[in-house]
Write a sequence for this structure.
């Protein structure tokens, strides 16, 4: 395996030969063998060990072992202690998920602070198979069946082509010592259950299981590239706008394909949605219908689907007070500029001109609320802003992000949409105030 590892690095991961590397090491056989292989290739690396304090004195023994290994290999070692149990309870995570978040956050912080080019983990072919089976049993799309990526941003997994048997054989042949984690033998976790009960049966059925699995992954990844290319082309046709408020898709593009539900799944699967039948029903639902996940909403608005985060529906922005001397006010939607001018030039939705002497300072900028009324420029009567937004066919997201500029209890401007007739510039106006977003 040692010679195969060298060939693998030279052919596929030559980026590691000139990089400054950080090896995530637990003290177990996989990460210890990876450290020895990198040492034999004279790669430039340091070790990073997490003590999760979950196994009493065994955790401390792992830490001591890693410290001695670093001394034997003559490399730098970083140790971090975590109160994993407390983190899991505070953030409502399983112990496994808590440990994963803690270690990867620390690895990335360490890499950024000390300028490591890559973080190396010791995932191997058997880990890849187990991950595939976990995703398969839980239900997944194609992405969940394409395996662990060898390179994912700064995280690199050099042992992915090699099996657990190969790693054990190398360790024994070179008299490499390591630490055994007793929890790896437990059937408590799904991964261990698959490792000890399912995978052995599959290998008994097909002794060449891992070779066949690697071929399957290769084909699935090739297929994934085709799917991603098709999705990219679909997005170019379907997305009509994308900004801070959300992304808007044309429903007609979904209806034009043979399998719209598949496209809906591929486009929105990363936003926490689970009720795919409900999402498919949005295509023919009444305007205003929506489906929520824990983090996002997908809203039907006329002939469009609008994807936005939940925070837009939970906004409670504080009003801003604007004094007579303010010329530049930062707002959640951009800068609001105020200035006196001599004449009216070109107007737009983002610029209004008002009679300054009719204003009572300070002005107030706030989100509109139920019951607000104004007299739209050019009209003689008042109109509820809710009715105005409905007539303008504003989407739910637009309504939630509509601001008004007020003086006293009167609306001067539905910002970015329509000014109020009562404050317009007339022949008798002495001071013209220009307001621009």
């Amino acid at each position: 395996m040692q010679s195969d590892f060298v060939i693998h690095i030279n052919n596929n991961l030559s980026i590691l030969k000139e990089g400054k590397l950080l090896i995530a090491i637990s003290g177990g056989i996989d990460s210890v063998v990876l450290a020895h292989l990198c040492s034999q290739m004279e790669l430039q690396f340091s070790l990073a060990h997490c003590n999760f304090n979950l196994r009493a004195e065994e955790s401390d023994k792992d830490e001591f072992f890693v410290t001695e290994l670093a001394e034997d290999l003559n490399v730098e070692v970083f140790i971090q202690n975590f109160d994993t149990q407390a983190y899991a309870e505070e953030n409502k995570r399983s112990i496994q998920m808590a440990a994963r978040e803690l270690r990867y956050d620390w690895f990335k912080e360490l890499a950024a602070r000390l300028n490591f080019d890559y973080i190396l983990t010791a995932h191997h072919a058997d880990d890849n198979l187990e991950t595939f089976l976990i995703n398969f049993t839980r239900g997944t799309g194609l992405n969940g069946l394409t395996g662990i990526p060898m390179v994912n941003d700064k995280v690199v997994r050099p042992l992915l082509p090699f099996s657990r048997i190969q790693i054990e054989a190398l360790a024994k042949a070179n008299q490499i010592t390591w630490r055994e984690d007793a929890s790896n033998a437990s059937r408590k976790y799904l991964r261990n259950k698959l490792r000890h009960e399912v995978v052995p049966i599959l290998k008994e059925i097909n002794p060449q299981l891992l070779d066949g699995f690697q071929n399957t992954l290769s084909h699935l990844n090739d297929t994934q590239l085709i799917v991603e290319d098709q999705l990219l082309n679909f997005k170019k046709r379907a997305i009509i706008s994308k900004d801070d408020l959300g992304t808007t898709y044309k429903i007609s593009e979904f209806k034009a394909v043979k399998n719209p539900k598949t496209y809906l799944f591929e486009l929105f699967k990363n936003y926490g949605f689970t009720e795919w039948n409900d999402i498919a029903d949005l295509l023919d639902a009444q305007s205003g219908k929506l489906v929520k996940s824990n983090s996002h909403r997908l809203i039907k608005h006329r002939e469009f689907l609008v994807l936005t985060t939940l925070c837009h529906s939970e906004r409670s922005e504080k009003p801003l007070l604007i004094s007579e001397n303010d010329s530049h006010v930062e707002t959640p939607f951009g800068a609001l500029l105020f200035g006196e001018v001599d004449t009216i030039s070109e107007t737009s939705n983002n610029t209004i001109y008002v009679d300054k002497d009719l204003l009572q300072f300070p002005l107030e900028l706030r989100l509109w609320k139920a019951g607000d009324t104004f007299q739209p420029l050019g009209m003689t009567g008042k109109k509820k802003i809710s009715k105005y937004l409905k007539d303008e066919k504003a989407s739910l997201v637009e309504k939630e992000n509509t601001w008004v500029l007020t003086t006293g209890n009167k609306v001067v401007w539905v910002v970015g949409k329509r000014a109020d007739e009562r404050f317009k510039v007339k022949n008798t106006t002495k001071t013209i105030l220009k307001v621009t977003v």
